[in-house]
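Input:
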Amino acid sequence: MGTVWLAIYILMWPALTIGVLAVIWVAVLKELRAAKREGEDAV
Amino acid sequence: MRDPADFPSGENISKIAHAIDVEGSAVPAQDFVQFSTPVTLVLLAVFYGGTFLLTLLIGRRDENVDAYMVSTQRVGFGFSAASMTATWVWAASFYASAISGYQYGLSGPVHYGLWGALMILFIYPFGRRFRSLAPHAHTLGEIMHARHGSSSQLILAVSNLLGSGISLMVNFTAAGALVSVLSPLSFVHGVLIAGAGVLAYTLWSGFRASVYTDFAQVSAMMLVAAAVIPIILFQAGGPAALAARLPELTAEQLDPLSGTAFLEQGAPFLVAVLAYAIGNQTIAQRLFAVRPDRIKSTFVTATIGYGSIVIGLGMLGLMALLIGVQPVGGDPNNIVPQMASSYLPAVFVALFFILVIASLSSTADSDLSALSAIVMTDVYGKNLARGRANPRTMLLLGRITMIVATVIGVLFASLNLNILVMLVFVGALWGAIVFPVIVSCYWKRVTNAAFTWSVVCALAVFTVARFEWVPLTGITALGLETIAAVGGGVVLGLMAFGFFGARVGAGVGTVAALVLIPLCAGFLRDHVVLLSSLLAYGVSTIVCVAISLASRNEFDFALIGQRVRRFQEEQSTTGAAPGRTP
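Output:
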């Protein structure tokens, strides 16, 4: 395994983590807006 | 601090409890960054104070009893996925993943994190079935009560109570150890602060508070994890410097598909994949809370989220191996704090401290919510009140349960009691209930006797094998290995069944069992933990199927939905004392 592959192998996980977090944030934002619009609790 | 698959084998959870570490004294504090007492207290106050303030945004003067356990049962994908991820990741997850990376090299973190992540994924097909049968359920035990009656329900309830109780205790233990290692405060101080902090923000709004705060906690966890991994990589010399050390690794450590890592790390997880998810109310609770059409996306996202955090932080172990770090005191459990202390600026060490506290607190608040739901629903609602549950009494009971559970958890954690035997039995119980629980939701002929006797017999055979009450030699060992092979087939068959239906499941299970029988013969007797775990699956399946086939039961599954109702609705139709609905 070369330098590039090792870097990818180690750094792909934090990149994936950020990706998942972005998906969650966008979804939560939409849910909060929808809850506010309908006058209900999001949770 | 949950570590999914380690419960079933018992010993592993003990190791993981030590990972954070129970005794603290084994770790010379001067080898790690030390926060002063005021700094530590400020960090904890900011974390727990901020979390508590967050819950004030959702707190109501009068909580709805159903919402206290499962929210509106229409929670969206974002909050649900965040909550599942936060609950599933606990401090031990990344400690153990890093140890795996240090020990097995390239494949270690993957073999640790992948199977833990797949536990979330494999349960969702069954989760959709549970929701379709009982849209208003609060616990899995409640469904079993509607399907079979009290004995089956209580078996499930006891296994859930023990599991969440142990998890709670281990989380408090982790907090104590972390505080004692990184500050002048003692282990007991850390346990007490964590116990009081988690209880304070969970007590009033229960599950709703847990889900709401999980979002903030998982955001903190993911941000810190995503930041510290590259920082440590480049502070340690960068990819080029680490790659230059690769030739010093053994062939096994260089193998990205290491068979040793799979057998020692991955296989025990595989056996436990379904057991943990079925046996744990924290999962069921989120399953019953999420919008039914968002179950799949929630569980898939949580699978990827858990995997990326845990495997990513496991890379710290791989980096430590490549750099040549020697764990303090020869204990690999010290690798994570050593790497953080050695390569992170002080402010990031503080953030890392918050990451660990967030991971253990999010799991602990889920455990408190799970424990209260079990006592409210399975003990009070379905047994003591018998259909005449008073929502006010129920809520009071839920809150008292949280207080009592916290006190017991703090006491057990502070006393550092040996819980290994209890863990062994909880693991066995979880393995024993998987098949009866799942098959009860699909097969009309399963009876209460089939459920109960299958679990009892499985526990008995497990105990005999696990503690070697009979010599594991000759025809006895061969017989047990054959049944264990059937257990292996059951595990794989159920996984296939969840995704591809009954025919494929039965086919995969049968073929897997037939393949495993010759492989297990003469082999499993030397691996008693694996043998006994698989026996729990095999025996419970054989007994459950045999008794069910002998019965003429034709259960109407529509009855489950009729019998499992909201409690807040129930009180208005039964005439019990009114509880105010917001």
